[in-house]
Amino acid sequence: DADFIITDSFHGTVFSIIFNKPFISIKNNERGNSRFESLLKIFGLEDRLVASIEDLDISSLTDIDFERVNQIREQKVKESLSWLKKVLV
Known about the structure:
Structural class: mainly alpha
Distance between the termini: 41 Å
Strand order of the largest sheet: 1-2-3
Helix content: 40-55%
Number of helices: 3
Order of helices and strands: EHEHEH
Oligomer: single chain
Largest sheet: 3 strands, parallel
């Protein structure tokens, strides 16, 4: 039911994308940042990753175009299923 998510969890980031919730992800050096960076790059949401809460400038955030994000996600699901079908046959 959250209106806005602030998370340092990769899974929190994923769920924010899936459930179309505006979010900010804070880098967590102990858990690795490359997966955050890879995920957010796919959706063009790199600006949602900050090094620390002190680096957060909410006034500079733009709205997330979840219609575009959902289209990309649907395409990635299709590509993944196609790949699975190909390798499992």
